[in-house]
Amino acid sequence: MVVGVLTIELFIGEAHSLKEKRRVLKSVIDRIKTRFNVSIAEIGEMDTWQRSTLGLSIISNEQAYVHKVFAAIVSFIEVQGTLTVIDYQIQLL
C-alpha cells in the first residue's frame, strides 16, 4: 500500500480579498475532489489573500498510479488560469 501526499503552493492572481480567495479555492477544491477522488484541504497561507498551500492525499497499491494522479492534478490546476503553481512536492509513505 502506498500513501501519496502532494503539497502545492499557489498564487491566486485574481483574488483581491480573503473572500475572493475562498471563492476561487472552494471552486477548485470541489472540482479536484469530484474529478480525482482525493482528499484535499487548504493547509497554509490561510490569512494571505493571494497565496495558498493545499495538501492532497491518495492511497493506492502502485506508486506509478499515485504519480500519475498527482501529475494530472498539477496540470489541471495550471490550465485553470486563475491559479499559478509556485511549487509542489510529492511524498510517498
The CATH class designation is Alpha Beta
- Largest sheet, strands/sense/barrel: 4 strands, antiparallel
| Shape field | elongated
Give the ordered list of helices and strands: EHEEHE
> How would you write the strand order of the largest sheet?
2-3-1-4
Radius of gyration: 13 Å
Please state the oligomeric state of the protein chains shown: single chain
Low-confidence stretches: none
Give the end-to-end Cα distance, rounded to a whole number of Å: 9 Å
Task: Specify the structural class.
Answer: alpha+beta
Q: Average pLDDT across residues? A: 96
Hey, roughly how much beta strand do the residues contain? 35-45%
| Architecture (CATH level 2) name | 2-Layer Sandwich
The helix tally amounts to: 2
